[in-house]
Amino acid sequence: GLMMMFGQVQRAFRAGITQTDVLEGGRAAADMLSRELSGVIPSYIGATNFYYGPTNITSAQLLPGGGTTSRANVLERLYFLTRENQDWVGYGYRVYDPSGLGVGELQRYTPTNVNRTPWIQPNYLAPATDPTWHRVLDGVVHFQVRALNSTNEIARTNAVSIFSSGGICIFRSNAVPAYVEFELGILEKRAYERFRALTNNPVAAASYLQNQAGKVHLFRQRVPIRTVDVKAYQ
Asked: Could you give the 3-state DSSP secondary structure of residue 16?
């Protein structure tokens, strides 16, 4: 009985440490993303102010309870334009997943070239080997972005400022979202390490990931954009 009690205490202790690590990492990444998103600013020319779009990497995880209901995970890309003093800077986020199975590391793009004009190459055109990509967080299974207008609807405005097709959304000219909502799903460290050990067998790795929905922690945040130009929606 003492051995069983000791084992249960150990498991609870390890689970608590794992959850603390995930929560700290997820909150730090969400706070950084939220802080940078709040600085999105319109260029008032043809440059890309804000962009998000899907990749061809998705995954599905069975929800706990033994049923057939599943949750769909997506990995999207994000780019936005900000200004620091007189310099325009473009930031980008993506999930780098070399296995193509739906789990990877959240990476942040910071261009080495800043300029007094907002004509900066968006991150979704940057090659995968670009050295300006830096690791932020491991074990990301879900990264989704939504651009909303002032009435909490999916942002729609004139075709010059925004283009939406197949999930791709591009804001140009004077248009930026009124709110940006993002979701970040992170797999617990032990589950992520087990998944990585199985990646040499894609079928086994995908099957394992499908049954780990209970090991995923979701972070959701809505960020108000201070510089929204209401004329873009009139």
From this structure: helix
pTM: 0.83
Residue 214 CA to its chain's centroid (Å): 20
128-187 pLDDT, tens digit each: 667 778 889 999 999 999 888 776 666 655 534 455 556 778 888 888 888 999 999 999
Per-residue HEC secondary structure of 171-208 comes to EECCCCCCEEEEEEEEECHHHHHHHHHCCCCHHHHHHH
Angle at 182 between CA 181 and CA 184, to 5 degrees: 160
What is the bridge-based pairing of β-strands 162-165 and 168-172? antiparallel
d(CA 48, CA 81): 7
DSSP per residue over 68-120, as a string?
Answer: S-EEEEEEEEEEEEEEETTEEEEEEEEEE-TTSSS-EEEEEE--S--BSSS--
The residue whose two tokens read 């954009």 is 225
Nearest to 227 by CA among 162, 164, 179: 179
Contact 190, 18 (CB under 8 A): yes
